[in-house]
Amino acid sequence: MAIVPCKKMIAICQYGGDFETHDDGWMNYIGGEAYAVDLDDNTQLTDFKQEIAETIDSTVDGMIIKYFLPGNKKNLITVSKDKDFQRMVNYYKEADQLEVFIMKEAPPGKNVKKKQPARRPQKTPPKPDSALTIQTTPAPNNTISLNDTIDIETNTDITPSAVPISSSNAFPIVTNDHDQRIAAKQWENIITGVGQRFHSLAEFREALRKYSIAHAFNFVYKKNENQRVTVKCKAEGCQWRIHASKLSTTNLVCIKTMRPVHNCQGVYLNAPFRAKRSWVGNLIKEKVKESPKIKPKEIAIELKRDYGIDLNYSQARRAKEYAREQLLGSYKDAYSELPFFCEKIMETNQGSLATFSTKEDNSFHRLFVSFHASISGFLNGCRPLLFLDSTPLNSRYQGMLLTATAADGDDGAFPVAFAVVDEENPDNWRWFLSQLRVLIPTTGQITFVADFQKGIRESLREIFGGECFHAYCLGYLAEKLNKDLKGHFSHDARRLMVEDLYSAAHAPKLEAFEKFTEDIKAISPEAYDWVINSEPEHWANAFFGGLRYNHMTSNFGHLFYAWVSEANELPITQMIDELRGKMMQLIYTRRVESSQWMTRLTPSMEEKLKNEIIRARSVQVLRSHGSKFEVRYDETVDVVDIETWDCSCKGWLLSGLPCCHAIAVLESYGRSPYDHCSRYFLVETYQLTYADSIHPIPNVERVEDTETEGGLVLVTPPPTMRTPGRTKIRKVVAPGRIGPSDFLKRQLQCGKCKGLGHNKRSCKEGVEETALQTVAR
């Protein structure tokens, strides 16, 4: 006999999202994740649940499975036994796949209330202080009986259809303290009783939600359709209920029946009420508008105090995101505005470059922006020195911000270009540098201070070739040394090695470099080998061939870090415009400040030169031959050549300012040291840096379709979404101040065995000794 194979189908399991109910009662599942699970006619419910649990890394305890009937998305069907499961499979046996929704019920003992015995409705009218009024036709004895409303409502066929709400996007509202729910009191009379009219069912549902919060009870829908809504108190046996429906030939909604008294004796007053992220977001919208920097923790505290709504941090953050999206625009729509936004940048700021690229599915890949004022300021007033760095974005779609920053004549950070990319990788760095290369002419050599990993080293060689020097960021180098060190080194030993690395990098002469590296060798030969093999020609002053003016780290991007921490939760176009506004204000402020300077050099360079002039008074000058002089200071002998602007101490070359040796020689010949300073430190050069302005960009309205050379393009958000938890934002450190203590963390040291990485309580030495003694016996 031939065996008939079982038909296979795929169950699309939706998990962690939220149901959204439309005015017509139709439900859509929003957010969460989806997993595919195979099933057939022989699959049992327990096996199906177990496979789902393994797929989503959960347990079958408390798992609830629901699904829609074919063609009906108004009522969810619950699968509680094998018969229900087989019925679900049979409904979809002609289809290749079906959609199920995975939910979790509350754990035992939580939000579980005693079953209340059903009570007959009281025939006395409500108390005078009740917030409700019943508008019905009085009985013959001129008294209002609740039975009048019961007769009307019981004529309606009520079919239970609970509206599910996922715990991932719904917020519990706990109403324990009535005295604290200050703001909720305004909703106590929002529903008055029979005959009250609303413009739509949505308005009625909104009023009902607020009314339940004000009176501290929970409710369930018995009917939730596009023509009528019937709701009852969630407490079993409680007689409170309300029914509203549309008036014939109109869109008005009227309350037809209402039982205004609860007889559940407060059983469900403390039950968690579920509210959607959108509802809570609308509730706090004005607060977010008034205080854009309000923290989620502060939102949770205020909602608890004013409404009795109890939120955790992530729920408050999501509600704030929704409120900001309503105020500022959609995160998703902002990506579709990118083509038009880039055009407006280049139109309003002639000579600027704003370009983006997408992936094959038109999802966002990367965006590069550099304003003409930044490029001209760098080329005309800044030293040929660029600092490359990156920082993560705490936006809904994550991403990274790549930055190129220069140093102005007062050692202030000057933003040159930045890019938003989906992730930091060699390909995106290569793209960023290639865009930057378009803006920078080929004449002259540029020094880049940057990390040597993530493909930056190879990209610089490929794009800029021999026209650039790559100075390894000393901060990244020290971090890698600390990470790569093998063996157990104490915190003090690590600190000394990193300090010696910094000293070796700053040492201007070979002898000093060798001294500090020998100090490292005395602590760890392995660390010494690491340092010698780490290409000192890229980071040590004694070997480096370019000019970096004593700037050893790439943390000049601190300016971008501070700005991004304030703006990275905005939609992408608004975040870019916020950065543009910060840059525009920075350029204007520094232009105005520098117009008041009366010195020849910028303030910081003026102070440094004056300090060297004071030191020069103790320098002894001896003539050698030609333009060379021998000078003696503090038991050291150096040679100064005033024609080539050089001193054997290398201070003149490394800083761009004449050292005390050179100043002593210059003054002995009646020359001014100001005439022998780098032109980049002159106030007039500084003013060229900030001569051009960044101009405002008009409001960008959403553009549905944008024509480009490649055809019709609609940019969509990147597929990556923010993972749970907070994104780590780089600590802002002022340029030139980063040192070993900024990243070295003290390790635990055991007081018993003196080992590192654990304490006395977790020490295994005593345990191992006891085990050995036991084996010996």
Number of helices: 24
Distance between the termini: 69 Å
Strand order of the largest sheet: 15-16-19-18-17-20-21
Largest sheet: 7 strands, mixed
Question: How would you describe this structure to a colleague?
Answer:
The chain has 777 residues and is an alpha+beta fold. Among the domains are: 9-104, Roll (Ubiquitin-like (UB roll)); 146-326, no CATH class; 601-681, no CATH class; 748-777, no CATH class. The strands form seven sheets. It has a seven-stranded mixed sheet, with helices on both faces. The two termini are 69 Å apart.
Task: Provide key terms for this protein.
777 residues; alpha+beta; Ubiquitin-like (UB roll); five-stranded mixed beta sheet; disordered C terminus
Give the helices and strands, then pairings.
Blueprint: E1 9-15, E2 18-21, E3 27-30, E4 33-39, H1 45-55, E5 63-68, E6 76-79, H2 82-91, E7 97-104, H3 146-154, E8 170-173, E9 197-198, H4 201-214, E10 219-224, E11 228-233, E12 241-246, E13 253-259, E14 273-276, H5 277-283, H6 285-290, H7 296-307, H8 313-328, H9 331-336, H10 338-348, E15 353-358, E16 364-370, H11 372-381, E17 385-392, E18 400-407, E19 413-421, H12 426-439, E20 446-450, H13 456-464, E21 468-472, H14 474-484, H15 491-506, H16 510-523, H17 525-532, H18 558-567, H19 572-594, H20 603-616, E22 620-625, E23 628-633, E24 636-641, E25 646-647, H21 651-655, H22 660-668, H23 683-689, E26 706-708, E27 711-713, H24 765-776
Parallel strand pairs: 1-7, 17-20, 20-21
Antiparallel strand pairs: 1-4, 2-3, 5-6, 5-7, 8-14, 9-13, 10-11, 11-12, 12-13, 15-16, 16-19, 17-18, 18-19, 22-23, 23-24, 24-25, 26-27
